[in-house]
Design brief:
There is one protein chain. The chain is an alpha+beta fold and 466 residues long. Helices cover 34% and strands 21% of the residues.
Amino acid sequence: MTSRLEHPLHEALGQIVGAEQLVSTPEVLANYSQDKSPFPPLVPAIVVRPGSVNEVRDIMRLAGHHKTPVNTRGGGFSLTGYLGECVEDTIVLDLRRLNRVLDIDAVNFTATAQCGIIMKDLSDQVEAAGLHVHTVGIPIGYTTLGGVLSGVQGGGYPASMCVSGTGLYHLLGLEIVLPSGELLRTNAGGANVHRSQDFTRGGNAPDLTSMFVGDGGCFGIKTEACVRIHPRPQEMAAGCFDFDDFDCLWAALLALTALPELPYESIVILESRPWSLFYFARGTQPTILDQTLSDIEAVLSNNGGRKSPPALQEQALDVGAAEPAYQDLFVNVDRGLLAFVAGKKEFPSVFKQVRELLDREIESRGLDELGVGLMVYFSPMLRHSIYTTISIIFDVDEPGSREAALDLQCRGYEKVVALGACPEPHQGYSSTVNASAWSPEFRQLMTGIKQMLDPERLLNRGLWGL
């Protein structure tokens, strides 16, 4: 087996990025071997940290010439494991040096940034200009723009996804390095060379931008993105109501999402007392905000809800705005994550069946004695669907606990797909489970696109089973 200190392209890669931007020592490579999931680590052969789009292009050309596989990496926060097809000479591209905001246009309300930027850094710079960008709620401080666009269904879930939708709704165009090293600009760049950006997706040509969103990085390397930005009211308020059973909670949520004008910016539901619904709203004036809160609370009260104790009320603003304290509660937990989206009509049945599967396995196998448990969160997305996460908590100090959580996570994703819901992460294991349900016609199309763009199967090999 090739020594990682003797990667055959070590010298050539160093000539492209500089020797100081190569990682090839076992001690440092180990830091790149694990994501945030319970899946086993996978140590890469070499890590390359390009600092420009031209360096990315040169690396792909070099890899193509030598038929060497390339895997991409952003913030390392994937939740369903690294790719299984990581052979001994695989090059891992760490794209976090591509981390600049290139333009904030307060007239056209757009921001253009390199895709290695951490989402919080993008958000902070746009906020400093007095505007807002829909990035992700959690984990905004850990994930890159390109990683979220690639690996999270629909391009990521903003804290305000209840009314703003996924990141795809706000994405105008991408700069992509194709597996061949060629450069592609989607949207206007692909159809009109006289301007870099169109403001209506599909306005000048078929919408290729969508093809590269949620692809897991299968079709190309995202190096730049243009997104819509927005003004946002600064008056904020939040609260929390408790519900004694799921049916009352669900009736309240259906009533809220059916209102002619959605009065909230976000709704977060946690299984706690036994169910707690956190609501978060913004307004231009305190009086308007007060009326908004009154409208929300009337719906919740009329459907069997009651105001939560003061301790939960005090947490409501942090939960609704995804403040650091709440983010840390979510991030700094050892868990396998089962995340999926289901239609609002289908959600109660899907959730019940997935939850029953997990509860049954935990009880029958005595996994609670190993520290395995569940943490449930769900939230409406626009009016039509529900985004759900079930965290499968494990105890790293308890032998067998991590493995049990991983097994439950895998079984859960298989159940989600069998029930017709959509798994969230589009990396690793989740992509293969999702692809297992493809029709023959869809698989043939996807295989053809991959073959056209990446005939040697060099980029993120194994995603979607392609």
